[in-house]
């Protein structure tokens, strides 16, 4: 970091570009209540010189905050609405009397209190990553498009309103959403591949109002349906064979996570043995598993929504 700063000074950019390094919330040994926030002592050997560098150069302390993980790992203690900025009740810090209506603020303030505990009171906190997954493994029940949309919409409103946090009222929040695209090849749990606002084919996972002024519209991507409300997703007859095969590979692979056993040889849906038929099976399976929304029938333009049972 010192070398990077030296290079910036040489280029005359050190006042415009700040040098820092991001951390996970795991850098804390305690985060609740926020006033008890404290850095893990085993990190002291590098934290002290790092914080001295940040304070001297007016650089922010960068942190990745994920209320989703706090809820997922401790759902018996953390209410979902508290993690989603939807709580109607308040959590009181017994040491300060400060009232918290969401976990995001509590996590930020825990960092501020940890910094203050080491006598670094002038360093600002920058949230370099936060978000909510739109899809997860079977046990990750909170990873849904609705919850992801709710979290990110409420987060944007919170930042734009410039209310700050209970410990830092009115202070501007510097926050970055994670992430722009789903990382469909990332290993790990299903949620690891589904933090994005867009699919790899550039279609949106859910609608998001970046102005912070609109309502949370859970039906923004819904389609016109048949008279009984049922729709299906099938392969377009205009799609090329290459595009259909690529779409099948995506839907039946780790990204789409569709069980395509039924369209394998000797299985009940193998016939008729052609790409349009097989793609339609894979497309509709993915479409129904993901809320029958318009974005779940994109497949790079090879999917078509119909209101008659194919």
Class per helix and strand makeup: alpha/beta
In CATH, the homologous superfamily of the largest domain goes by the name: Glycosidases
Mean of residue pLDDT values: 90
Spell the H/E element sequence.
Answer: HEEEHEHHEEHEHEEHHE
Gyration radius from CA atoms, angstroms: 23 Å
GO cellular component, one term: side of membrane
Family: Belongs to the glycosyl hydrolase 17 family.
Protein name: glucan endo-1,3-beta-D-glucosidase
Keywords: Cell membrane, Disulfide bond, Glycoprotein, Glycosidase, GPI-anchor, Hydrolase, Lipoprotein, Membrane, Signal
Describe it:
One of its GO terms (biological process) is carbohydrate metabolic process. It holds the Pfam family X8. With 310 residues, the chain is of the alpha/beta class. The protein folds into 2 domains: 2-193, Alpha-Beta Barrel (TIM Barrel), CATH 3.20.20; 232-306, no CATH class. Helix content is 30%, strand content 11%. The protein contains 8 helices and 10 strands. It has helices at 2-11, 44-57, 67-73, 80-83, 103-117, 145-160, 241-252, 275-289; strands spanning 22-24, 28-30, 38-39, 61-64, 91-92, 99-100, 125-130, 174-177, 232-235, 303-306. The strands form 4 sheets. It has a 4-stranded parallel β-sheet, covered by helices on one side. Strands 2-3 form a two-stranded antiparallel sheet. Strand 7, helix 6 and strand 8 form a beta-alpha-beta unit. Helix 7 packs parallel to helix 8 (275-289). The protein is elongated and about 70 Å long. The N and C termini lie far apart (60 Å). Mean pLDDT is 90; it is low at 218-228.
